[in-house]
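Sample 3 of the quickstart, ligand UFG:
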Amino acid sequence: MAKILVTGGTGYIGSHTVVELLKSNHEVVIADNLINSSIDVLDGIEKICGKRPDFVKIDLADSKAARDLFSTHKDLDAVIHFAALKAVGESVNHPLKYYRNNIFSLINVIEGITKQGISHLIFSSSCTVYGLPDRLPVTESTPVKSANSPYGNTKQIAEEILSESCSVNKNINCISLRYFNPVGAHESALIGELPLGVPNNLLPFITQTAAGLREQLSVFGDDYDTPDGTGVRDYIHVVDLAHAHMAALDRLIAQNNDTNYEVYNVGTGNGHSVMEVIQSFEKVSGVELSYKKVARREGDIAAIYADTSFAEQKLGWKAKLNLDAMTSSAWKWEQSLRSKKG
Ligand code: NAD
Ligand code: UFG
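Result:
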């Protein structure tokens, strides 16, 4: 059993990872400022696990507050750093907000673990670092392309900061996980994604449309060079993604890592088009979705999906849940939200 600090642990991916950590009998401290999550998430976690994680409300971009956090939690074995702002469009309009939040938080976390002698760190990166890839599927050595948003740039800069910090400080062992498109929710429907306002992402937009909150889904582009003309992504069930964090943590704690900075793609390895996602959703929900094909969304790429063989080989991890499991769990979560809100 280890004691793990989970920053951003009341958020979407963080909360699902906290559940898996608690199920494996780890002790968890969540640090979150609740800027994009609700304290009620702790109730959902407790209902699933029968245990409630410790919670500290803190802005990790505030260096003094972060120093206090690390000095009051000296006995941590590892940190999983999810906390970040993630809205691509907002980052274009408010770049400094994103650089300040995402980069300052990361620096404060690295300084905290260095000062307290905590050796293990897992960082949430994104497939956005690959930009528009020349070849598919993308491997970890596919070149990083210049970012097309400040949000994407924070992930690239963060990876550079981590790689450089690890190269001068061999006491830190870090794994960056490049997530592809996380979707779905815990099977209990007690935790899930809580988008603020109108969702930008495909699956929450689909479930909100089916639930009657949105009139119609716009399918952005049907003239891409893909089998059915709509955009292709590597959707990964958030519970599979949570398990990838467990595998990365095990690798670090067992000191099985080959170098003190490793990077892994975390996807399923399968690309699915927007139309395939809609068809899966209609099949599992029995709801006929209102949608319309419209022009491409600016900044979107045609297709991206992962080569996951490195994670399979080194982490011993592979995604297990298919697209229907993703869309059905997302729908169950949306229905549970609506029943709570009446
Ligand atoms: P989320 O917004 O649900 O969770 C992030 C959490 O961090 C929230 O609870 C928020 O309140 C908290 N937070 C943000 N800034 C903070 C700060 N300064 N101090 C303390 N807490 C702060 O997002 P998510 O989808 O769970 O994403 C988790 C991580 O994964 C992020 O780093 C995100 O960039 C990355 N990621 C997400 C996706 C995706 O599609 N969801 C894809 C790739 C990478
Ligand atoms: N899409 C629609 N209609 C919508 C929303 C999305 O047709 O209303 C399409 C998009 O055009 C794309 C696919 O559904 O083809 C997936 O779009 P998402 O917005 O769900 O996801 P993205 O792949 O665009 O974005 C994700 C993450 C970002 C990250 C980006 C880059 O959400 O954080 O990948 O890799 F920056």
